[in-house]
Amino acid sequence: MVESQSDWTDFQQQRQRVSGLTVDRLKQLIHRLNDECNLTLLRTGKKQELVTRVQDAMDGWYQRQDSRAYRHARDVLTDLSSSGNSVSRRGSLQYLPPAVPATPQVAYSHYSGPNGYGHAPTTSYPYNGRSLQQSSSSPYSVQTPSMQPRSDIRFSASPFYKVIEPVSELATSQEAKDLTERKNLSITFNLTSQQREKLSAPNCSYQLRLYCTSSTHYSTSAFGRANPCPIEFPSTCEVRVNSTLLTANLRGLKKKPGTAPPADLGKTVRLAHSGSNKLDMIFMNNQTPFVPKRFYAVVNFVEVTTVHQIVDRIRKGKYRSAEEILARIKQTNHEDEDIVAGPSSLSLKCPMSYIRIQIPCRSKLCVHAQCFDAESWFSVMEQTTTWLCPVCEKMLLVDDLIVDGYFDSILRATPDSVDDVIMEADGEWHTSDNKYGSEGWKALRRVSLNPSTPARIEMQHDTMPGSGQHLPSPAEIFVIESDDDDDDSQIRHEISPPGRQRSISYPASGSPTRIRSSNQTVIDLTLSDDEISPPPAVRTKRPAVRDVSPSPPLVHPVKRARLDSDARRPDNADWLSPSNFNNHPSAGSAW
Amino acid sequence: MADAEDQEQQHDQEDKPQDSNQPINVKVVTSTGDEVFFKIKRNTKMSKLKGAYAQRVGKDVQTIRFLYDGERLGEDETPASLEMQDGDTIDVMVEQVGGSWL
What we know:
- The complex is a heterodimer.
- Chain A is α+β, with helices and mostly antiparallel strands.
- Chain A has 20 helices and 16 strands.
- Chain A is 32% helix and 14% strand.
- By secondary structure, chain B is of the alpha+beta class.
- The chains are: A alpha+beta, B alpha+beta.
- Chain A: It holds the Pfam family zf-MIZ.
């Protein structure tokens, strides 16, 4: 190891050089070190992080006296700092397979050369444009040591497509030199008779799909294969199968790899017995800023799971009961004396499709109660595979998805006309017009009418969205919204704006409530139920009719007045007109 | 009549928001109309409300902006400093990603 002693003389100097590189070069450096020295350094982060990573790796070699790796890194460094574009060399024949430790050192001498442009085009890229036969004895096993066995590329798992087997070799493109250079990649594949049979069956669940990724995600090194690759087609890309242009969406979201589904080759594939199929991908990597990339493409034979099947599976397997969800809501509802979370609105419409949710779905990790419609979500995800929660925009794992039984119970308890409900912090819910509500909320409402609990009434009142006009009320202010609290549905619907449906949601609770709340008089029960003639109205002055008072005691005289007008006028059209309160029912003065 | 008034005022604790640190109800509304109500003390910082809201809806606190009366809210402002009334509304905006100066 005499030689290796001398290797380390310039170690500090080389170490310093790393920090002098631009971010671009650093990334190239790391990429090459990963590829060629079996490292697993990340290429993301700030410059200093990149520098530190490389220097740490160098320190590691120093400690282990791994002069081979160090010499190699030094060569790469020299290469990077001297040549303007080291990248172009990476497509060369001498590009090394991952088995670096076993490779003789001589192989690296290439990198110390001034530039790599000298390679003849014919040798510079072994797999470019080569059509690959499906037969198992690949010609590349001899020619190119870096050719991977075909099954070794793993793409990010999708719930829609299960890769059964690749039907082609992994084709690799060369890196483009700049934004405008056109590249071409072709794949030839033959189908086995079994595959043909499966594909030609009516309503078959098998397809051929083109998977493509780039060197950003995939590399021939061990590290590159560690993570599944997101699907990334070149930014401008045209695919022809047997010279038929493929109309599939290859783009996904701009600059967001992994947002396009694998392209369905569909009917373009010849299923005839002898036919071999040829796929051409012509593309430009014209994304700015320009990042040199190689692209890898393979045709896979996949089994398709439809949206409907996936949704069905989730509905059957991932249903969480309402109790379970409620328990979690209550648990997360921690107390803070400064801020008390109040009610919030919960939309029964899917935030993506704006239709009423059929199967309420969300991730079990999401903290919000809002769900989305499973079928809508999966339909969108089939096209643009972002996997983002439409509510909180976090990336979801399909395995985390659950069907929310609590949300489902709300959906089942309300008719289709209800678009949203109000959810209290403790998980009880009701509609804004109080026609529908959870059992717990109904019970609470009954209790809250008891005069001994005014505070509760206050709170509930304040939290009604309709109570925006709630003002500090002098005695003269008339109660409208707050009589939602006294459970007098018969009255309530009277004062609802025209167009709202009349309904008597809680007829059972109405009568006892009235008895309790009207502790000053002895009229109400018979009144509301039998509609016999009421006692004289107590109050005569009714200004500010649309205002709201949260004060329960105020309700009684008012209610009595309303009740008597109520009893007399089934049409209820104008009970607000002052005359009604004087027991002069009059119809027709609509408000 | 006078009786009714007295009675009402006894029960009307909520309607005196001018008390120094009486909690007030605020409504936080997104552009899509989703609402969340909070009861906060008048000297509670807006940053805290924002944090509570972000946690509630599962968003990252960095990505949301609070607007009151159309003005962006600072972290240290409080309902008292903003002279908020009970029942006032705060609008939530989502931070803009992308774009560039013209």
